Amino acid sequence: MNGFKILEVKQSVLADNNNQADELRNLLKQRRVFLLNLMSSPGAGKTTLLSRTIEALRGKLRLGVMEADIDSDVDACIIESLGARVIQLHTGGMCHLDAAMTRQGLFALGTEDIDAAILENVGNLVCPAEFDTGAVKNVMILSVPEGDDKPLKYPLMFSKCEVVLINKTDVLPYFDFNLEKCISNILLRNPDTKIIPICAKSGEGVDQWTDWLAGEVAAWQER
Ligand SMILES: Nc1nc2c(ncn2[C@@H]2O[C@H](COP(=O)(O)OP(=O)(O)OP(=O)(O)O)[C@@H](O)[C@H]2O)c(=O)[nH]1
Ligand SMILES: [Mg+2]
């Protein structure tokens, strides 16, 4: 028998993070502010969808956006040009946001005068799925060029998200992407997933997404 301890540090880090995430959700509840965590691989279309979402919900929902990236302010500039409240978060090399970082971002963004904050997480299908940010709902985008097998290869991400948006449907004719197969692969991970095929570029299907979001924000504020 060995005389030394084995400490599962990853588990304790995740447990601490889960507690902080629950605290943040309680705070958001008190303030009647909804928080959405939007995830995807790099370039799947998060900022393009957010731009469409801001335009579609203008005058209906007061939105704030947190853009998380390793570096740059490209995405925050795009969101600011649409007149929405935005903050750019630099993770300095980290591939995900945790609850403490999200809380810091939210406080800097300011939760007064907004109904919902949307966190555009760092583009990555692995690490962001492991860390509860304190969001009320997790949503992801899978884009057609990435392939219909991604729910099989990145199961955790798909199992954590209530909504999967299948983006870039305009390029379906150019890729060996089987939409039916992709949908059944997603449902294998989580049979309750709401799946919405969209084209963020043209706006096709986006109204189904914004209807879902507006409904969820209203339900959270009424609770
Ligand atoms: N053809 C097509 N291109 C799209 C669509 N949505 C987004 N794009 C393009 O995909 C590229 C990446 O889009 P972004 O919205 O920046 O993606 P992102 O997920 O925010 O990227 P990161 O923040 O870098 O992770 C851009 O060139 C978009 O114009 C779509 O529906 N169809
Ligand atoms: Mg982006």
Task: Tell me what you see in this structure.
- By secondary structure, the protein is α/β, with parallel strands linked by helices.
- It contains nine helices and seven strands, in the order αβαβαβαβαβααβαβα.
- Strands 3-2-4-1-5-6-7 form a seven-stranded parallel β-sheet, sandwiched between helices.
Q: What are the SSEs and their pairings?
A:
Elements: H1 9-31, E1 34-40, H2 46-57, E2 63-69, H3 74-81, E3 85-90, H4 99-109, E4 116-120, H5 127-130, E5 137-143, H6 150-153, H7 155-160, E6 163-167, H8 179-189, E7 194-197, H9 206-222
Parallel strand pairs: 1-4, 1-5, 2-3, 2-4, 5-6, 6-7
Helix pairs in contact: 2-9
The structure holds guanosine-5'-triphosphate (GTP) and magnesium ion.
Quick gist of this model?
With 223 residues, the chain is α/β, with parallel strands linked by helices. Helices cover 43% and strands 18% of the residues.
**Cα separation of the termini:** 53 Å
Computed over alpha carbons, the radius of gyration is 18 Å
Helix and strand content put the structural class at alpha/beta
Q: Let me know the number of strands.
A: 7
Uncertain stretches of 5 or more adjacent residues: none
Ligands present: guanosine-5'-triphosphate, magnesium ion
The helix-strand sequence is HEHEHEHEHEHHEHEH
List keywords for this structure.
7-stranded parallel beta sheet; 18% strand; 43% helix; binds guanosine-5'-triphosphate; globular; binds magnesium ion; 223 residues
